[in-house]
Design brief:
The structure holds two protein chains of two kinds. Chain A is built from eight helices and 14 strands. Chain A is α/β, with parallel strands linked by helices. The chains are: A alpha/beta, B alpha/beta. At the A-B interface, α3, α4, β7, β10 and β13 of A face α4, β7, β9, β12 and β16 of B. The complex binds flavin-adenine dinucleotide and adenosine monophosphate (AMP).
Chain lengths: ~270, ~325
């Protein structure tokens, strides 16, 4: 069985995140890391492999991004993925969801062409930088596959996949048949830390680099110029003006709170 | 004037509030046309409501054949309606399902997609709030039919009667669309409180509650608010995940957000920072949540909240 896990390299959320002059996210001048939410996807791929011991299962970590993005793949390899693919091409810079999903889908096609059909494409629930959460559905659409998304529990048996999802109005059990696209949430189980052994082993794992030409994608189909949306303007929100803070002494806090709520007509 | 399609979010015919907000936004862009996918039995209740909030046209797609299948049948329905109506834009609620439908539709219609808008101007320019609310972005779709998902609470529903002309729309759903399927569903228990993402007021509790949410719930009820929780409270098993506010929970944007015993981590902020008024009760005056607040009380929530709740209830008489 072939599993591809899509991992994204994102600016560190605890650092300063900003935009470039062309209104694209600054991905070069800031520290980055494997999106925490994609660690959960790597974890589920590894657990699936462990649970189905004895089967021939290959886990490939795939990323699309600039040079530094390879760190996201490396981290996945350290956690236990078997091999890595990094799609890097200057033309990709500034791609929106459409461009990114196209490149991811074409890379999955290439992995399938070289190594046999891909049964499962695993993604995180959302990138911590964009939080769109639309790439999984787009990759599924491009690959012509069904999607089961936002899983908090994943179970497989043969080619059957069952997940649990905390939906908006109900908790649901959703079923599908492989091949399919699966995304998992941060409720699916803590991601493991790379062990020392894992870190050493990762250095010897195969890591391939593809360009757009390798994938048969025309540079004109991706990147900022090919985007079907345009950012007109970005503006830093003025920091919220400091509010009033009172210390509760002998019950004064409750009265002050009530007064504030009343003054704003919330009561 | 061109139609602007609005996909109706409903539970058994009961139209949810964010859909009414979409109708108000649609009116800025053209002629609001609602797309109701559900059983014909429930359509009556929904169409009356949709017309009352400005829907000029209502496409009814009876889902007898597609019930229980996820996302793709709805994509195909919208795709076919769009082919007939050639709309000026397609608006959906920024829920998980709304975004996934929008994502697939964008590729099929070769159209640009904007997610999580908090406003749409007459000319179609959207406003988004990114990086945990620290930046606002103005964007536009430059190709195809603009497909825009809008966060709940981004507009005020407007009661204004539309013609509400109903058109039964027969869709052809491919077999490929009928793959991923809901095997079982357990509806969330009704709490009697407003829906978290739709509420005008949200009262949340975190690790500082120590697991006792009674003071949070009592204050919420005094204010007619929804109850929320931090991930720490959810991970501790004190509240179900559906109550979680933040990056990996619900994103809320109420008139008033009251954070109690919540430190204000960046991932929590991502879910509440766009609230109009923010209030916090925390015993640590250094807690980062105080950087955001309009009003804060440094104190123990177990004493401050019950006292404030009592005063509020008294005032209401
Ligand atoms: C990938 C990822 C996604 C995440 N997604 C989310 C998310 O969606 N939502 C979310 O909330 N978090 C999320 N987190 C977790 C987040 O980083 C914080 O760990 C979490 O928000 C902390 O919750 P808390 O504020 O309740 O707890 P703490 O940070 O432990 O804060 C508790 C606060 O309560 C105060 N307190 C204690 N006792 C009292 C008392 N008696 N009265 C008053 N105050 C008291 C303390 O002073 C403290 O400030 C995510 C983390 C990661 C890595
Ligand atoms: N550039 C990328 N490289 C690899 N995976 C990605 C990339 N962008 C998005 N993804 C995957 O898509 C998921 C959802 O992303 P998004 O829709 O951008 O929030 C992420 O959790 C990743 O698994």
């Amino acid at each position: 069985m072939n599993i591809v896990v899509c991992v994204k390299h994102v600016p560190d959320a605890t650092g300063d995140r900003r935009f470039e002059a062309d209104n694209t996210v600054d991905r070069v001048g800031v520290d980055g890391l494997l999106s925490e939410l994609d660690e959960y996807a790597v974890e589920q791929a590894l657990q699936l492999k462990e649970k189905r011991e004895g089967e021939d299962i290959t886990v490939t970590a795939l990323t699309v991004g600039p040079e530094k993005a390879v760190d996201a793949v490396r981290k996945a390899l350290q956690m236990g993925a078997d091999q890595g693919v990094h799609v890097i091409d200057d033309a990709v810079a500034g791609s929106d969801y459409l461009g990114t999903s196209l490149v991811l889908a074409k890379a999955v096609d290439k992995i399938a062409a070289e190594q046999g059909p891909v049964d499962l494409v695993l993604l995180g629930m959302a990138s911590t930088d964009a939080s769109g959460g639309v790439v999984p559905a787009m990759v599924a659409e491009r690959l012509g596959l069904p999607q089961v998304t936002l899983a908090s529990v994943v179970e497989t048996q043969g080619d059957q996949v069952r997940i649990k999802r905390d939906g908006d109005t109900a908790t649901e059990v959703i079923g599908g048949t492989m091949p399919l696209v699966l995304s998992v949430t941060d409720q699916s189980g803590e991601a493991r830390y790379p062990s020392f052994k894992g870190i050493m082993a990762a250095k010897k794992k195969p890591l391939e680099t593809y360009t757009l030409a390798d994938l048969g994608v025309d540079a004109g189909e991706v990147g900022l110029g090919a985007s079907w949306t345009e950012v007109v303007e970005t503006a830093e929100r003025p920091p919220r003006t400091a509010g009033e803070i009172v210390k509760d002494e002998d019950g004064s806090g409750a009265s002050a709170l009530t007064e504030f709520l009343a003054s704003k007509k919330f009561i | 004037m061109s139609e602007v399609l609005v996909l109706v979010d409903h539970v058994a015919g009961a139209v949810r509030k964010p859909t009414l907000e979409l109708l108000a936004l649609a009116k800025r862009l053209g002629e609001p046309a609602a797309v109701f996918i559900g059983s014909a039995e429930h359509a009556g209740e929904a169409t009356a409501k949709l017309a009352a909030y400005g829907a000029e046209k209502i496409y009814v797609v009876d889902d007898a054949e597609i019930r229980g299948f996820l996302v793709v049948p709805k994509v195909e329905a919208l795709q076919q309606i769009a082919a007939q109506a050639n709309p000026a834009a397609i608006l959906l609620v920024s829920s998980a399902e709304g975004k996934e439908i929008a994502a697939r539709l964008a590729i099929r219609l070769e159209s640009g997609l904007i997610t999580d808008a908090v406003d749409i101007a007459k000319d179609g320019t959207t406003t988004q709030s990114v990086f945990a609310g620290s930046y606002t972005v103005a964007a536009k779709v430059t190709r195809g039919i603009p497909i825009i998902t809008v966060k709940p609470n981004s507009a005020t529903p407007v009661e204004t009667a539309g013609a509400g002309t109903v058109e039964q729309f027969a869709v052809t759903i491919s077999d490929a669309a009928k793959t991923a399927q809901i095997v079982a569903a357990q509806p969330r228990q009704a709490t009697g409180r407003p829906e978290l993402t739709e509420a005008a007021i949200v009262v949340s509790g975190g690790r500082g509650t120590g697991g006792d949410f009674a003071p949070i719930e009592a204050l919420a009820d005094a204010l007619g608010a929804a109850v929320g929780a931090s991930r720490a409270a959810v991970d501790s098993g004190w509240m179900p995940h559906s109550y979680q506010v933040g990056q990996t929970g619900k994103v809320v944007s109420p008139q008033l957000y009251v954070a109690n015993g919540i430190s204000g981590a960046i991932q929590h902020r991502a879910g509440m920072q766009t609230s109009k008024t923010i209030v916090a009760v925390n015993k640590d005056e250094e807690a980062p949540i105080f950087e955001l607040v309009d009003f804060g009380v440094v104190g123990d929530l177990h004493t401050v909240l019950p006292a404030a709740t009592e005063q509020i209830n008294q005032r209401k008489g």
